């Protein structure tokens, strides 16, 4: 391949430095799934419109389908695989189970990572505000009511941003 | 997607130099990557400008300066923006999703491409994407297209919410090119489509947007942004209105009104503003100002509903602002 079309990148994924060679066209989503074999992050639309591919980049939630892997060089990515610690579920994961906050489960990793972003970014609010903050995550099964209940369980009850 | 080379620029001059040689800037990537995925944009060389500085919000005595590489979420979270420019915060918080707001930059937002269906469909004739091929929207699916500022060559709306709020806040864009910096009123930054809809702004070859300047005088006005769309959240505007009003003893001293979703560029409503100034800020003046918003509107079939929607949106925004005072 001509110079500059494939590059060596190092990304910290779930706390571990990973180096891969990627074609410049590879999205962060495809690098995570196909190159690093972390298939928990899902691909829905590939255009930023569904939220299935949500991950944290340096602690903030993003859609991994709308950024190229080469742009994440030197950054830290957290995926759904990185949430559980020492074999115990993250409180959000436990709350999703507790509240039956999924049906087919396809949107679930994205929903949970998006809610993890609310936590790490310090965002909170009324039920309506949380619905709005979560509107980038589409659930085709319509599990919204239980998703909100699960998130409500984990987010401190206070008004945030 | 076509193969491309990727480089990072360490400073603005390196980015400007590369662009003069044909490189395409990438910032948040949220619009450009969509266009590349759909085969509408096919750059040979991407120049990543995230490392050139110009990120963050800086408050000054006479205004605030927002770096072009600042993420939308950071702008809306900034305490000065929240306290002094509610319309900017409201416009951003109604933009896209939380994820996209963490990625999208201010500069990229102002330069995002239209959502016209045919612009984003490589197979359709479109004067904006392929000059001289014709306008598929003119007689076609034009429910989301413009009723103000259009030409026989293009009726596409400018999709940015933030730009509409910034126009109503008297914002200036700070540009940097091979010859140094210059400043342009945001309202004059955008061109009307006329017979060259492919040329959307006054940006010169190689020029970067490096920032946005909001004068402090604009902060003295009460302000609000209202967005009307097909669903409650995560959708582009069918009509939107940014209003900033200064009153004294119930009388309007100054008014700024701009609308989005209905025009080919963020649209300032000078006649509506004039109808408010010097009069009591009440239903009479508000209704008159709202009616004037649609003056010169040219519906083209499926977007005819936007004319009354525009009037109602302006009226609602002003009534809410009056109620909040
Ligand atoms: C799912 C989805 C929903 C959305 N909904 C909305 C919405 O409701 N309202 C709304 O307003 N927007 C919406 N958007 C659009 C979004 O706001 C823009 O995509 C974003 O702001 C673009 O910024 P960026 O930094 O990602 O730009 P990029 O994609 O990186 O760049 C866009 C363009 O600007 C150029 N560019 C970028 N920065 C500069 C600079 N500093 N100087 C010169 N040129 C530059 C690039 O070359 C490119 O041509 C939505 C986007 C998505 C994906
Ligand atoms: S309205 Fe403009 S962008 Fe849409 S098809 Fe016509 S020329 Fe293209
Ligand atoms: S796959 Fe990324 S938002 Fe749909
Ligand atoms: S659980 Fe099926 S898409 Fe959400």
What does it look like?
- The complex is a heterodimer of chains A (161) and B (325).
- Chain A contains five helices and five strands, in the order E-E-H-E-E-E-H-H-H-H.
- Chain A is of the alpha+beta class.
- In chain A, helix 2 packs across helix 5.
- Chain A is globular, with a radius of gyration of 16 Å.
- Chain B is an alpha+beta fold and 325 residues long.
- At the A-B interface, strand 4, helix 3 and helix 4 of A face strand 1, helix 2, strand 3 and helix 6 of B.
- Bound molecules: flavin-adenine dinucleotide, iron/sulfur cluster (SF4) and FE2/S2 (inorganic) cluster (2 copies).
- The site of one FE2/S2 (inorganic) cluster has 12 residues of chain A, from loops.
- Chain B: GO terms for molecular function: FAD binding; oxidoreductase activity.
Features:
heterodimer; A: 161 residues; alpha+beta; 5-stranded mixed sheet; 5 helices; 5 strands; 30% helix; globular; B: 325 residues; 5-stranded antiparallel sheet; 4-stranded antiparallel sheet; 29% helix; 21% strand; binds flavin-adenine dinucleotide; binds iron/sulfur cluster; binds FE2/S2 (inorganic) cluster; FAD binding (chain B); FAD-bd_PCMH_sub2 (chain B); FAD-bd_PCMH (chain B); Xanthine dehydrogenase family protein subunit M (chain B); FAD (chain B)
What's the average pLDDT of chain B? 97
Strand neighbour order, sheet with most strands of chain A: 2-1-5-3-4
Number of helices of chain A: 5
Largest sheet descriptor of chain A: 5 strands, mixed
Q: Helix- and strand-based class of chain A? A: alpha+beta
Helix content of chain B: 25-40%
Distance between the termini of chain A: 47 Å
Report the helical percentage of chain A: 25-40%
Quaternary structure annotation: heterodimer
Largest interface pair? A-B, 38 and 30 residues
Mean pLDDT of chain A: 95
Following the backbone from N to C, one meets helices and strands of chain A in this order, namely EEHEEEHHHH
Gyration radius over CA of chain A = 16 Å
- Uncertain regions of chain B: pLDDT < 50 for 5+ in a row? none
How many individual β-strands of chain A? Answer: 5
Instruction: List the uncertain runs of chain A.
Output: none
Strand content of chain B: 15-25%
**Helix-strand topology string of chain B:** EHEHEEEHHHHHHEEHEEEEEHHH
Q: Which outline of chain B best applies?
A: globular
Major sheet characteristics of chain B: 5 strands, antiparallel
GO molecular function (chain B): FAD binding; oxidoreductase activity
Organism (chain B): Propylenella binzhouense
Keywords (chain B): FAD, Flavoprotein
Pfam families (chain B): CO_deh_flav_C, FAD_binding_5
